[in-house]
Design a protein that fits this description.
- α6 packs parallel to α9 and α7 packs antiparallel against α16.
- By secondary structure, the protein is of the alpha+beta class.
- Among the domains are: 78 residues, no CATH class; 126 residues, no CATH class; 133 residues, Galactose-binding domain-like (Jelly Rolls), CATH 2.60.120.
- The protein is built from 23 helices and 21 strands.
- The strands form six sheets. A six-stranded mixed sheet has the order 6-5-7-9-8-10. Strands 14, 15, 17, 18 and 20 form a five-stranded antiparallel sheet that branches. The protein has a four-stranded antiparallel sheet with strand order 11-21-16-19, with no helix packed on it.
- It is globular, with a radius of gyration of 29 Å.
- Helices cover 43% and strands 17% of the residues.
Length: 692
Amino acid sequence: MPSTYYSMLSGRLPASVAYPLALLLAAGMVLYLYPSGFLAGQGAYFVTGDAASHISGWLFFREDQWRFPLLHSVRLNAPEGVSIAFTDSIPLVALLLKPFRSLLPDGFHYFGLWHAFCYLLQAVTAVFLVRSLGARHLPALLLATGFALTWPALTHRFGHTALMTHGVLLMALALYFRGFSNDPGNRTRTCAALTALACIALLIHPYLLAMTYPIHTAYLARLYVLGQIDLRRGLICVALSLLPLMGLMYAGGYLLSSNVAAPGFGRYSMNLKAPLCGGMLCEFTDATGGQHEGYNYFGAGGLLLLGFALATCGRELLRLGRRHFPLLLVLLGFCLFAVSNRIHFGHYRVLEIPLPGSLEDALGVFRASGRFFWPVGYTLLFASLAVLLRKQSGLFLTVATAALVLQWLDTRGPRELVQYQASAPADLDLARWQSAVAGFEAIDVYPAFGCGHTPLEDYVRYQYIAANLGLTISSGYTARPSGDCDSKNDFVRAPAQDDHLYVKTGFQRNPLDLPPLFRELAQADGCVIDLGHLVCARRQSDSLMTVGTPFVPPEQVTARWAASELPSVIGRLQDSRLVPLQQGAIGYLSFGPYVNISPGTYEYGIEYRSEDRLGIVVGNWDLIGRKASGDLITVAEGSITGTQGHPSRLARTSTIHEPLSEVELRLFSNGGDIKLEAITLSRQSEEQNNDN
């Protein structure tokens, strides 16, 4: 590129032109990705999964009276209630809109519009950041905006609206880099801006606070190193920033839940291959079943840009890192936390560092640690852009432009997936449900959320229905389960109420767990099956039959799990059977299925074959479950013997006297030959029990 032409492009672009142009580019991306119906909050996206939980949290909060803590609503998780901070309902917007609820249309929500806002904010803050790093010309604006809008980690967060607000992270980095000058007023303004940003981040999503506040501390640390503040002044700044944050946490009900931590730290981590894989170069690898939370692919264009910057401007990047080593330490901490104590490269576990149980529980507050690489990725991207674009080089600009084109091509697949999902029509007929629930005031859900292995999707369907149709609901999907399981599930042992609708989630997946209330309503022809869930009412309602098919309880209920559906420690599938990975292996060939069961008499069976002789013990089995107190009990146990290659079924019967959760029928191999085909659990009817 001729130097004179580059000089024309590299002139300083006024802010009054830069930011409107960035907004224009972002608006184009929004219109490219999302149909107008999606932006208005319509479509399948909003009635399923996380989005339905976010929306229902807002609607419950909107219809409830003002309470303290301010974000508390007793309409969800009734009667105790829950803070909508735990439904990820973007409390910042909920608080701003609630005073105007009477002016809003029925069912109005802001989550479609927030997607648009995220892209607009992403573009503006990207320009703010690259200008703060010293690149203020038109190519810098176009490249920074282009990379920010196509950054794979942003597109990947489509399923979680609040966590798409990556512009908060870019703003924190921009304020950090812009905050160094000899003007004390600028330092004061920067500290105030970072504090305000931290408060905003908290009211959008706590993970964003956890990523932005350390950048604030890095800023104060560098001011101290530069001699621009002393230790006392720095501690005062920290205290002044923590006071409003703690006040917001208290006033918003972020501290309401006694269980702010959750299991999963180490599972929802970042794979070491994540920055390199996820596009045309190699496939994304999930070694734990939860590393999708650590999706941090740079994109082929981002990797080209970073590699070229390291090759040509490596020394400048190194000097930049040394100058800002407090920020570098924060970013290193983010990296270590992202990979967690169980470090994987691809499917290989490179290292596992045992942690005390109390520490692992504490880290579970931010169990999806893989997300913490986001600020690291953005810093590397914009540092590379800045050092290249500050050079008066047509070659550098050409390579950066080619990298953006490559990035666009490489990330086409995820964008097309967003377009497809955003265009899917909703299949939930709220009008039909409105007729079905007429006269009802509440939905009671069994089992309560967090009291078993029930998928979250089972809950969000009914909390979305309840929120839109003005009912309360006893339990629902929240970021952290709330309430004692025994007390939350106690309603199934009491008589049914006329104005309550009762839902047994996932009934067809596990028909064994049918508490007395549901059995009585089913016998009275008061239940229907809705998408595999059992919906019952004491008050007969013809309209209830329009949302499901009538349910007739069978005399005996049997559930069967094929070997392919069961977890294993030492096993592998061979001809649809679970067999040991290698001959003579010792350990659990199968465990699970982690179901809840009600009191009653059960027959349980193990379908298998073994090449060993009859009478030779090849393993052991046990039936275990968790009582309401949390204690594990062994219901029964025994040995399993050879069958000389013939198929066999081991069957036993036991009476369960109290509800059990997380029930497992486990099969332990002692090194003998076992080929597991399936396990079964059957609940016997009262007539069968009497005959026995």
